[in-house]
Amino acid sequence: MEEIDRAIVAALTVDGRLSYTDLAEKVGLSVSAVHQRVRRLEQRGVVKGYAARVSFESLDLPLTAFVAIRPFDPSQPDDAPERLAHLPEIDSCYSVAGEDFYLLLVRVAGPADLERVLQEIRTSANVTTRTTVVLSTPYEHRPPKVAQPADQLRQRGVPAESPGS
Amino acid sequence: MEEIDRAIVAALTVDGRLSYTDLAEKVGLSVSAVHQRVRRLEQRGVVKGYAARVSFESLDLPLTAFVAIRPFDPSQPDDAPERLAHLPEIDSCYSVAGEDFYLLLVRVAGPADLERVLQEIRTSANVTTRTTVVLSTPYEHRPPKVAQPADQLRQRGVPAESPGS
DNA sequence: CGTGAAAATTCTTAATG
DNA sequence: CATTAAGAATTTTCACG
């Protein structure tokens, strides 16, 4: 992927509601050009969507935990992800190398809720669980490094003046 | 938090770029009322921001791994998160209960890059690492369950007709 | 707090080089 | 592909209940 596209993606990762006007200024293109590029990035699947970042504490989900799971009977078909998908407390499901089969990220209201969810995980997927409770989150979902800060592109052949109508 | 706010948050979690027009229709309020509520949710910190959801494969970061870290010398002050913050490959940092001190989520270009990042983690924070490679991600960042589907609010005292201008 | 409407921006498309 | 221009839609603010 090329430089300007990376800058666009970087900017949208930091602020997914940036207007095309601001985006255009950041990357040094016209509004239409940026709009076209964003549309192409979206339909190519580079940008998969937009989401509000919310405080889970405010949503009464203050307890986060990682749950490593392992099938009780390794000879049976492994369809744990589908069988667990109905549990809304599961934020993410990663298939991993190592001793465990999957690593789940779950968010719940508290210890009692965690206990209930663990039981549901075990019975739904016929697995054993090993749980690691999160005590705090110094940082999460940081924007990936995608080329340079995207600010140095602005001064590359484009006058900062707006022509006006 | 009350019912309508939860519905708003739920909708924005699924689509962070929903227009206030659509949002207003979903929760059965006027555009202005919804706009006010979103602003309050933002400044109360319930909505912390908006971000584009991107494909890490497209960004040349196809390899994800969890890195559990433990201080080499537990008697020294534990400031690993700050000392690791400069590494852009670290997506998230969780302080955890259990045998390890922190669990890091890292995204890199490949095995060689992972090796480099692990070395940087060890030397930057004076820790030992135990790494779990992610093979695939069945699902990630699913929207949390926040009250009912937010569709049943619409038909609660509000005619679906648009009054027009 | 909610509503309705008006003004300022922005989004979106189309024509053009 | 990028640019400019123009109509449609949205965001944002305001006065009022």
TrEMBL record, chains A, B:
This is Lrp/AsnC family transcriptional regulator. One of its GO terms (molecular function) is sequence-specific DNA binding. Keywords: DNA-binding, Transcription, Transcription regulation. Coiled coil: none annotated. Residues 136-165 are annotated as: Disordered. Residues 1-62 form the HTH asnC-type domain. The keyword DNA-binding applies. Pfam families: AsnC_trans_reg, HTH_24. Transmembrane segments: none annotated. Gene3D superfamilies: 3.30.70.920, Winged helix-like DNA-binding domain superfamily/Winged helix DNA-binding domain. One of its GO terms (biological process) is response to amino acid. SMART domains: HTH_ASNC. InterPro entries: ArsR-like_HTH, AsnC-type_HTH_dom, Dimeric_a/b-barrel, Tscrpt_reg_AsnC-like, Tscrpt_reg_AsnC/Lrp_C, Tscrpt_reg_HTH_AsnC-type_CS, WH-like_DNA-bd_sf, WH_DNA-bd_sf. PROSITE patterns: HTH_ASNC_1, HTH_ASNC_2. GO terms for cellular component: cytosol.
